[in-house]
Amino acid sequence: MTAMKGGCLCGQIRYTLKSAPAATVLCHCTHCQKASGSAFSVNLVAPLSEIEMTGTLASYDDTGDSGNLLKRSFCGTCGSSIMSEPAARPGVAILKAGSLDDPSSVKPGLQIWTRSAQPWVKFAADMPSMEQGR
Ligand SMILES: [Zn+2]
Ligand SMILES: [Zn+2]
After folding, report:
1. DSSP labels for 83-100?
2. Distance from residue 54's CA to the centre of ligand 1 (Å)
3. Which secondary-structure segment (H or E) carries 133?
4. Which ligand is closest in space to the CA of residue 70?
């Protein structure tokens, strides 16, 4: 595949994901809803070493619905969510697919935390699902 490129709204952050993501996961957890200002997040799971990042990320150490520590990184200028790093899985990055230049290039294969999904999110009904995280 060709490398995937993305960045934040103001252009301060730019990144390249050099290989295909290991998984694409739709997350309905309440923290993703808060952090994204939307109903869910779309996440690309990839090794941190496969991501080239330019710009300066701001970050927040969040404790997720799972109880696990998650470093959420975003642009300090425009606030776009860019990436999370789970403390329990060192070297693993979770890129926010909405920050891709072409978000239509990925499709989620799994959804998690469906117990807090918004009731009108029905389009993903046939997708493999987990009520909580993993
Ligand atoms: Zn920005
Ligand atoms: Zn989440």
Report:
1. EEEETTSTTEEEEEGGGB
2. 11
3. none
4. 2
**How many degrees, rounded to 5, is the angle at CA 121 between CA 120 and CA 125?**
125
Q: Note the ligand closest to the C-alpha atom of 74.
A: 1
The CA 132 to ligand 2 mean position distance, Å, reads 10
Residues of the chain with pLDDT under 50: none
Domains along the chain with CATH numbers: 14-116 (3.90.1590.10)
For residue 35, give the ligand nearest its CA.
2
- In the reported structure, the alpha carbon of residue 16 is separated from the centroid of ligand 2 by a whole-number distance in angstroms of 22
Give this prediction's pTM: 0.89
Name the token pair of 128: 């493999």
Give me ligand 2 centre to Cα 107, in Å: 17
Burial class of 17 by CB neighbour count within 10 A (0 to 12, 13 to 18, 19+): buried
Decide: 70 and 86 in contact? Cβ < 8 Å.
yes
